[in-house]
Amino acid sequence: MTDRTKARLDLVRPLFSASLGVAVTDPQAQAPAPMAEEIAGLSPRAIDKRRREFAAGRHAVRIAMAQIGVPAAPVRVGSDRAPIWPDGIVGGLTHTTTCAIAVVGRRAPVHSIGVDVEEDTPLKEKLLSEICLPREQVWLASQADPLRLAKLIFSAKEAAYKAQYPYSRTVFGFSGMETEWDLAQGRFTARLQRDVAPFATGHRINGRFAMGQGILVTGVEMEAV
């Protein structure tokens, strides 16, 4: 593990419960080949960058599984492109060009995990109204680095969406959630803007975030609904 990868793991680990396995890998380094059942989910036309990120993510999954005493098992790609976790296991998986993160746990008490990593760069201004609702834009306007925090809002909505998806199996856009932030405590809340069964309008999904080492990371753990 390189110094940068270790520093990123130290950043990410506190976002999640101690009972969960958390691993960070580097897609720019050589990773073990994914299992055959996993590779089957990759497009034959996948470019090298995509293949590297995929392999780094599955390598992180294996490390996280080992941390909680789970034997290595394939995490296949579903028809909806979401990971299919082994029976009794829940997990979250995310990657960028320089960082892959996996978070894995046993199904009880955690029933769903959402994690997202982004490069620590500002959101493109032209995307602001697509990602952020009006009240979020008002909040951003009062902050010292609004486009960097807009990227954090993007990440939080991704993590919260991933956490709720195993329950709802519903696809919706960034307007489907509005976030609130406690920057000092490293916490956020994503509030649903419409009914998404089994969740009602106003349902709150709580998460944590960290910024540093060139990345923005958001994480969500959900118990049974």
UniProtKB/TrEMBL annotation:
SUPFAM superfamilies, per the entry: 4'-phosphopantetheinyl transferase (SSF56214)
InterPro entries given in the database record: 4-PPantetheinyl_Trfase_dom, 4-PPantetheinyl_Trfase_dom_sf, 4PPT_N, Enbac_synth_compD-like
Annotated signal sequence range: none
Keywords on record: Enterobactin biosynthesis, Transferase
Entries under Pfam families matching the protein: 4PPT_N (PF17837), ACPS (PF01648)
Residue ranges occupied by any 4'-phosphopantetheinyl transferase N-terminal domain in the UniProt entry: 44-104
Pathway(s): Siderophore biosynthesis; enterobactin biosynthesis
Domain 4'-phosphopantetheinyl transferase, chain residue ranges per copy: 112-197
Catalytic activity: apo-[aryl-carrier protein] + CoA = holo-[aryl-carrier protein] + adenosine 3',5'-bisphosphate + H(+); apo-[peptidyl-carrier protein] + CoA = holo-[peptidyl-carrier protein] + adenosine 3',5'-bisphosphate + H(+)
Listed GO MF terms: transferase activity
Top-rank lineage group of the source organism: Bacteria
Subunit relationships: EntB, EntD, EntE, and EntF form a multienzyme complex called enterobactin synthase.
Record family assignment: Belongs to the P-Pant transferase superfamily. EntD family.
Function: Involved in the biosynthesis of the siderophore enterobactin (enterochelin), which is a macrocyclic trimeric lactone of N-(2,3-dihydroxybenzoyl)-serine. The serine trilactone serves as a scaffolding for the three catechol functionalities that provide hexadentate coordination for the tightly ligated iron(2+) atoms.
Protein name as annotated: Enterobactin synthase component D
Taxonomic placement: Bacteria, Pseudomonadati, Pseudomonadota, Alphaproteobacteria, Rhodobacterales
